[in-house]
Structures are given as structure tokens and as C-alpha cells.
Amino acid sequence: MSVYQFSATLMNGEEKLLSDYEGKVLLIVNTATKCGFAPQLKELQELYDNYKEKDFEVLGFPCNQFMNQEPGSNEEVIETCQVNYGVQFPLFKKVNVKGKDAHPLYKYLTNESKGFVTSDIKWNFTKFLVDRNGEVIKRYAPTISPSKIEVDIIKMI
């Protein structure tokens, strides 16, 4: 299996096959605009800007499962991301990233790359680095800033 077996709905309502990203390095992140880590959205955009021409993508999955830190509608989420953080990378409609109703992609990601103590996503801005074959290479805690992941991205592109 790989991430390419999954699909998710983009903010514009389009169902996006992750196989469309085949051959690219991916950084998949669960986001929340009201979270203390929300400034990472700007860093994620900088990574995207710096490496998108080298087949790198950031995929953002807003989630409201952690202390109601993404309470707005999908339209409000995308507006906040674009206006406050300049986000241009793909954003998907809000999903659950843990529990029985977790999006199938997140069930796969957490199974492939266990967290510290548990495989569950514990907070917003957990990041998964995926190689060009769709394999999960590494999981990063919310406290790891995107700029610290850059060295691992460079090794893969």
C-alpha cells in the first residue's frame, strides 16, 4: 500500500486522487487556524514555494478534533489560510485525523508511522513526510517547525 490508494476532497469540492501526486515528495499536515502552531502555515508555504518546482507538495488537512481550534466552515478556513498566511498549497476539506471516524488516509499514515507512545495523532500540525513512491518516511511532532524538516526534504528531492 501507499498514500496513492487514497483520495480526499479539496476545498473547492473536487475529489482529488492522491495518485495524482505520484512521483512527488509530499508533506502531509493536519492544520488548525486557531492553534498556537498556526504560524507554521507560513513556513509550510515557504517550503512549498522553495521546492514545488522540484516535485514537492504540501497537503493541508484542516481538523477540528483538538480543542475546537478549527471551528469555522471550510470557506472560512481557506480564507484565513490565504489572507493570514499566504497559503497556496492544496488544502482539503476538514477531516477527522483520529478515532473511528478518521479519514482513511490518516488511518494509513498513523499505522505506517507510529507516534511516541501511541500511533494516534495527538495534536494539530503533526507532519508526515512521504517519498516519491508514496511511502511514509518520517513523522514529525507538532512542535517540530517546518523549517527544521527542510533538510530531510532536500535529501529526497
Helix content: 25-40%
Quickly name the level 1 CATH class: Alpha Beta
Q: What's the CATH topology label? A: Glutaredoxin
Quickly give the structural class.
alpha+beta
Beta strand %: 15-25%
Could you explain how this protein is built, in words?
The protein has 157 residues and is α+β, with helices and mostly antiparallel strands. The protein has one domain (3-156): Glutaredoxin (3-Layer(aba) Sandwich), CATH 3.40.30. The protein is 28% helix and 18% strand. The protein has helices at residues 40-51, 74-85, 104-112, 146-156; strands at 7-9, 15-17, 25-31, 56-62, 127-130, 136-140. The strands form two sheets. It has a four-stranded mixed sheet with strand order 4-3-5-6, covered by helices on one side. The radius of gyration is 14 Å and the shape is globular. The model has no long low-confidence stretch (mean pLDDT 95). InterPro entries: Glutathione_peroxidase, GPX_AS, GPX_CS, Thioredoxin-like_sf, Thioredoxin_domain. One of its GO terms (molecular function) is peroxidase activity. Keywords: Oxidoreductase, Peroxidase. Residues 1-157 form the Thioredoxin domain.
